[in-house]
């Protein structure tokens, strides 16, 4: 409950900043479409640099202790924005630096968090536990933009970012209060001598790529992330400048769309029992992902419903897929290399995020915002095809040979 509650607080704060920082860039700094997209790039690029070494460190350090320090450092970094906003004027370069620092620290926290959960929950609880964590994350993603827009109207966007700094402090406190085991790293029983840091960095990636199901999950998630970040780098500019949408309404439109992810997270467990936990991974995306193509059809006023609907249905399918595939990874990968395998997977799937930000910025600048949105949602629509071409297509449930 402490891990869940602290994560929920941190998720809500981060979701508030996800709207406020680009909103500051657009309304206060006067940033261009490309400059706003580069904010997304600054946040995602560290994953391509730090994921593999982070996986080795996670497997060699106590995970909860590492998570605690990550939250403290994030609170200090993001807290600099409201301090400067209160004393004077926030500059674009500061937004870039803070975004990059928080993005870098989040790489280490995310891998540690994902690898620590199997120490807190039993194998049978992982689908339900991941579903609850995803539900609060998506609920935060839904409420965060609306809350951010409201706070920006009351105290200005720069000062409202203080909510994110406080959320990191709350998360750190819950980690301190936890009494669940924070075990020492487990030795790798398959080797008799230690290996170098460089060799250890690639072990997880090799393990994941040799497994056909994990390989399909990597390709599917990488494609989805490319499209999601391209959409995220465009949507505030598209809604504000392209469709003449007010700041508070932007928060409502984006937040309403993210509600689909909340619904999908709640439905993951009963759907897994009815459809099968293996079949559910690809069915959810094949059915829901094409709805993303409704987003470029949105127009001003009532037409904004299409944007929220397309985004909402896609997020519902994505949340179901995410819950199922995370449980598969946590239950089938040996714990002594779980951090490195998660890091290897994350290195690939997060490396497409900077490309998505670059894609959104370049295409949006050269060919227009709506064309760029068509390209981005096109990637989202086809994500399920990777899973359909994998062994998952013939499974209802994950075979016992794939577990443990």
Automatic annotation (TrEMBL):
Residues 213-404 form the Major facilitator superfamily (MFS) profile domain. Keywords: Cell membrane, Membrane, Transmembrane, Transmembrane helix. One of its GO terms (cellular component) is plasma membrane. SUPFAM superfamilies: MFS general substrate transporter (SSF103473). Signal peptide: none annotated. It holds the Pfam family MFS_1. The keyword Glycosyltransferase does not apply. Its main location: membrane. One of its GO terms (molecular function) is transmembrane transporter activity. It is a multi-pass membrane protein. The chain crosses the membrane at residues 20-42, 66-87, 93-116, 216-240, 246-268, 280-298, 304-324, 345-366, 372-389. It is found in: Cell membrane. CDD domains: MFS_MefA_like. This is MFS transporter. It comes from Streptacidiphilus fuscans.
